[in-house]
Write a structure and sequence with these properties.
The complex is a heterotrimer of chains A (313), B (349) and C (281). Chain A has 313 residues and is mainly α. Chain A is built from 13 helices and two strands. Chain A has a two-stranded antiparallel ribbon. Chain B is built from eight helices and 20 strands. Chain B is elongated. The chains are: A mainly alpha (313), B alpha+beta (349), C mainly alpha (281).
């Protein structure tokens, strides 16, 4: 270090770039309030679209709403809802379609991730796997609507391959109609789970894997006994996120089946939409919304809170 | 003038004590080193001086004024962090300029001061680079430059050298000491490396378990330790601490007998003696033990003797060699023996 | 023995490429086919026998610009997305800073609340939101879209940015504080530049979710003043066959291309973004 301008040290001190000591004693209160102030705008904004509509929906659910006239009906809407076959059907449909689609895309994504994560050659091509996810969901719905229903491409291909004899109408049977929704969802969202699983697999400790290989384990054995258990939290997060989105399935239903045949593909979101905006039975639809809200809160409190606490999120 | 006084400082988080009962007076321009193992409370204490933590109890004064409620930015202290904490998105010039900007120093003045600081730390040619483009040693100097640029009243340094390799560390130690003398700024330096403490400090504050074990000059700490912790922490290789008992002025432990000891009564006592104060085969032996290990280091040979269950280090001549297992006799320098109470560890003689 | 192992290795590699290749095919085939749908005359789409080798035609391209307000759809999408991203990022940054850096009594609860809004199904608040916007006279405006998109994405954006802020070493802030910077200055000059990749990732993902949004947009928009590309697809009907697929296909690709480019750019951060910071790629 040089001895340059040693005396400059004294001079600079005299020039007093030092602040007046103890100048700003920030009040205790302001210091405590600051983090709240930072987070307030976001929280207020969110309250406006959760609290206010929530309260509004609860309020409206106690009325029978016909255009601009509101008649108080107490719990009638809820009572009718409980006895409404279509309501329960919508819930069950959502559950059935959702769980099959989720299980399918999970298994597929896992299988693909297992094969893909070790291979550097595949890395460049992984972008291809992402493509289905990058289309607008409404576009994807139209793709499969055309392929299954309007354009009969799937039927045609199956016939050429020899799997079926005559053209199949995918809207004719319950399982077929549901299958079209499932295929559309799986096609579009398997990549979502895929990238997350790959990231999870790649983040595992290489040394552990190498030790296992030296111990004589096959790739499948390593995957099953080591990678998979280690990935459990990752899988959990991905499945929870995707699961929540699946239960709100609306776009596919709106575009592809509109609930046919006979309401077998009507999900709960579509049910609410139909009640509110096709039959304009707003009070009734609000009651359904409230029930759905309660269900969501229960799920959030149990499943999500556990994920939150475990520190993962 | 920058005197620092800590009185009755305590820091606890919930039920856990971080720092207890800290009282120190640091004189203006003094170089004080807080020394201790990780978790001993030294960094926490320094952060309280900086204002980054608030003491649970006690007062921090600078030049007589209580500083407890004052924000770090108003205390006129500069800090050098272990990880350097250089702002990654700014060039070195901008990094060093930052504190001046925050203080509202006029533009022209800023440039002059930045360049002067850069020169003092020998980074003049690197001003337009970003931290990522610098080596570890250069980054450390950049962090130093940022600290000195505004001529603060106090320097705080949190293990600034621990991320550097050994050779660089030694060179930087010399530079830091030189710089501090040049700039005449009160400095508080935190480290777990006792060599840094011994070579840099005007006074050392040894801490352990959140409490001060001893305050003194390096010489005092070395030659006059207050308890077994300090005795064992300073010095490499460390002081031998042997448990035994004193009875009628004679200290006995297995293989060891030392007469004429100035400790009264009959009691269990720990004897402390440094390896360099043990002499092989000279004069009346105090210790007899079997050779357990012989380690030539080039500059000397360290001999480990086993007496009873204990292993005792003795410093011998460079050329000394012995076969394992044979018995050796060692005499202690009677002027450099330390006695500590077995239970409390406090020094009694 | 070595021979067996080598064969096994080769077999497993073959299996790997079959599986991955099969899936790649399954991903690409519908896309390429749909592209061909967009580039053929309408008459060749819905036919008794599906046509696999159509004649090339730019009918659809001309159609979407002349028969429909494609320009408006595009404009609406872009504005609604840009506006909503600006809103949500501006609200999210201070919130993320507060959640990641400060310790205060209700932090866990506030954090959980913000996170939980991600779980909310659009259908739950669809009707009240509809009434709200109607009463405020905001139906069929881009403003309404911006507000709702920002609300939907706020949780996501906040959490992603928070995750990136947690990575910033606290030493940097300590240094800035002793250097004399105020909290806001630290946020602006130190924190934000340091977590810029996170902010960009969050913005990109929010934008994609905004482009994709269907339900709210369906309810809010009724004319070309507010129709976005996502919902406009449902408008392409007319004539005897109903849905005009070639137009739909082209619009789908118009939306696809920018999304594709931008996702390639943030590939590295994708898994972290999609899991809101939980899984770091």
């Amino acid at each position: 270090m040089t001895d340059a301008a040693l005396s400059g040290g004294e001079a600079a001190r005299a020039a007093s770039i030092a602040p007046e000591r103890g100048l700003r004693r920030r009040s205790r209160f302001r210091r405590r309030a600051f983090p709240y102030l930072l987070v307030a705008p976001a929280v207020v904004y969110l309250l406006m679209i959760t609290l206010y509509p929530g309260v509004y929906a609860i309020y409206q659910s106690f009325f029978h709403v016909r255009f601009n006239s509101w008649t108080f009906v107490g719990f009638d809407n809820y009572r009718s809802l409980m006895g409404d076959r279509e309501f329960w059907a919508a819930l069950s449909n959502t559950f059935v379609i959702g769980s099959i689609a989720l299980a399918l895309q999970c298994a597929l994504a896992m299988l693909l991730a297992f094969h893909a994560y070790r291979d550097p050659f595949v890395k460049g091509w992984r972008i291809v796997f992402l493509i289905p996810m990058l289309f607008m969901p409404s576009a994807v719905a139209f793709i499969w609507k055309l392929a299954f229903n309007d354009g009969r491409i799937v039927s045609d291909l199956l016939m050429r391959v020899g799997l079926i004899d005559a053209n199949v109408s995918f809207l004719s049977s319950i399982s077929l109609a549901r299958m079209t929704l499932i295929v559309a969802d799986v096609w579009q969202w398997t990549p979502f789970l895929f990238i997350i699983f790959v990231a999870g697999l790649q983040s595992q400790d290489e040394e552990i894997e190498e030790a296992a290989r030296l111990d004589g384990a096959s790739w499948a054995a390593i995957f099953w006994n080591i990678s998979l258990p280690m990935m459990a939290p990752v899988v959990a997060i991905a499945v929870v996120l995707r699961g929540i989105d699946i239960t709100t399935m609306f776009t596919n239903v709106y575009i592809m089946t509109q609930g046919t045949p006979g309401g077998a593909t009507e999900t709960i979101s579509y049910f609410i939409y139909r009640l509110g905006f096709k039959t304009f039975n707003f009070g009734y639809a609000s009651a359904a919304s409230v029930l759905m809200l309660i269900l969501t809160i229960i799920v959030a409190q149990t499943v999500v809170k556990r994920a939150f606490r475990s520190g993962r999120l | 003038m920058a005197r620092i006084e800590l009185s009755g400082i305590q820091k606890k988080w919930g039920a856990v004590w971080g720092v207890r009962d800290v009282n120190i007076d640091i004189a203006d321009q003094e170089f004080v080193v807080f020394l201790g193992p990780s978790g001993c409370g030294k960094t926490t204490t320094m952060r309280m001086i900086a204002g980054l933590e608030e003491p649970s109890e006690g007062e921090i004064r600078m030049d007589g004024e209580v500083m407890n409620e004052v924000e770090p930015r108003d205390r006129d202290v500069a800090m050098v962090f272990q990880g350097y904490a250089l702002y990654p998105n700014m060039t070195i010039y901008e990094n060093i300029r930052f504190p001046l900007r925050m203080r509202g120093v006029p533009r022209a003045e800023q440039d002059r001061l930045v360049r002067r600081a850069a020169e003092l730390v020998e980074l003049g040619g690197y001003l337009d680079r970003k931290p990522a483009a610098l080596s570890g040693g250069q980054r450390q100097r950049a962090a130093l430059g940022r600290a000195i640029v505004r001529q603060p009243q106090v320097f705080l340094m949190d293990e600034p050298l621990s991320n550097l390799d050994a050779q660089l560390r030694q060179a930087m130690r010399v530079q830091i000491k030189h710089l501090q003398r040049q700039l005449k700024i009160t400095t508080v330096y935190v480290t777990h490396d006792q060599i840094e403490a011994m070579t840099l400090a005007d006074r050392i504050v040894v801490m352990q378990g959140g409490m001060i074990q001893q305050i003194g000059t390096p010489d005092q700490i070395y030659s006059d330790p207050a308890n077994t912790f300090v005795a064992g922490f300073i010095g490499a290789p460390p002081m031998n601490l042997i448990e035994g008992a004193v009875s009628g002025g004679v200290f006995r432990a297995s293989g060891i007998e030392v007469g004429g000891v100035a400790v009264s009564g009959d009691r269990p006592v720990t004897l402390g003696v440094r390896p360099e104060d043990c002499h092989v085969g000279q004069g009346e032996p105090h210790l007899r033990g079997a050779v357990y290990g012989v380690e030539p280091t080039g500059e000397a040979t360290y001999l480990t003797l086993k007496a009873g269950e204990k292993l005792i280090e003795v410093k011998a001549m460079r050329a000394y060699r012995a076969a394992l297992g044979i018995t050796e006799a060692v005499a202690f320098d009677r002027a450099r023996l330390y006695f500590f109470d077995v239970e409390t560890g406090q020094r009694i003689g | 023995m070595a021979e067996v192992r080598r064969r096994r290795k080769r077999e497993s590699r073959v299996l790997r490429y079959v599986v991955l290749g099969g899936w790649a095919l399954f991903c690409l085939a519908p896309v390429l086919w749909f592209l061909s749908i967009g580039l053929r005359p309408r008459t060749e789409i819905i036919t008794p026998q599906p046509i696999y080798l159509p004649t090339f035609s730019l009918d659809a391209w001309r159609m979407i610009w002349s028969d429909w307000p494609m320009g408006a759809y595009l404009r609406n999408s872009v504005l609604a997305i840009a506006g909503s991203v600006v809103i949500s990022v501006s609200l999210a940054i201070p919130a993320a800073y507060s959640l990641s850096r400060y310790r205060y009594r209700f932090r866990e609860d506030i954090g959980f609340y913000i996170l939980s809004t991600r779980m909310m199904a659009p259908a739950i608040v669809a009707i009240p939101i509809f009434f709200l916007f109607r009463n405020m006279g905001l139906l069929d405006t881009i403003w309404a879209l911006m507000l709702i998109y920002a609300a939907i994405n706020l949780s996501l954006v906040t959490w992603i940015i928070r995750s990136y802020m947690l990575d910033i070493p606290p030493e940097l802030e300590d240094a800035a504080r002793t250097d004399g910077a105020s909290d806001l200055r630290i946020l602006w000059e130190i924190i934000i530049p340091a977590c810029l990749p996170g902010i960009i990732t969050a913005a990109v993902i929010a934008a994609i979710f905004a482009i994709n949004e269907f339900l709210f947009t369906l309810l809010i928009a009724s004319t070309s003043s507010a129709y976005t590309m996502s919902v406009a697809l449902a408008n392409f009907t007319g004539g005897s066959d109903g849905v005009i697929y070639n137009a739909i296909a082209l619009v789908a690709f118009i939306a696809f291309v920018p999304v594709f480019l931008v996702v390639v750019a943030i590939q590295k951060h994708l898994s972290r973004g999609l899991t809101m910071g939980a899984v770091k790629g």
